[in-house]
Amino acid sequence: MNIEFIEKKLGEIIDELEKEVMEVLMNESLGKGETNLHMKPLASTKQILTNALESIKMVDRLAREDLEK
User: Fold this and answer.
1) Which pLDDT tens digit goes with each residue over 9-62?
2) CA atoms of 69 and 31, how far apart (whole Å)
3) For residues 32 and 24, what is the distance between their CA atoms, to the nearest angstrom?
4) Judging by beta carbons within 10 Å of its beta carbon (0-12, 13-18, 19+), is residue 14 exposed, middle or buried?
5) How far is it, in rounded angstroms, from Cα 69 to Cα 63?
6) Are 31 and 9 contacting, i.e. CB atoms less than 8 angstroms apart?
7) What is the pTM of this model?
8) Buried b (16+ CB within 10 A) or exposed e, 30-64
């Protein structure tokens, strides 16, 4: 499994999410409540991607350890 490639692609997606976050934060036409409503899915998506990457790394590490036995 090419962890570096997966990490790079997820990093690109996270970078795009962070751009969306900045657009929401800079949008002065949104009130605090609307801003929070726009932010929650973005923050959740970032957390899901971060957790997925950690899970992929763990599975890869465990598979390599099993092969070494």
Assistant:
1) 999 999 999 999 999 999 999 999 999 999 999 999 999 999 999 999 999 999
2) 57
3) 11
4) middle
5) 10
6) no
7) 0.80
8) eeeeeeeebeeeeeeebeebeeebeeeeeeeeeee
**What would the 3-class secondary structure string for the chain be?**
CCHHHHHHHHHHHHHHHHHHHHHHHHCCCCCHHHHHHHHHHHHHHHHHHHHHHHHHHHHHHHHHHHHHC
Looking at residue 52, its amino acid is A
Cβ-proximal residues to 56 (8 Å cutoff; 6+ apart), any chain = 1, 3, 6
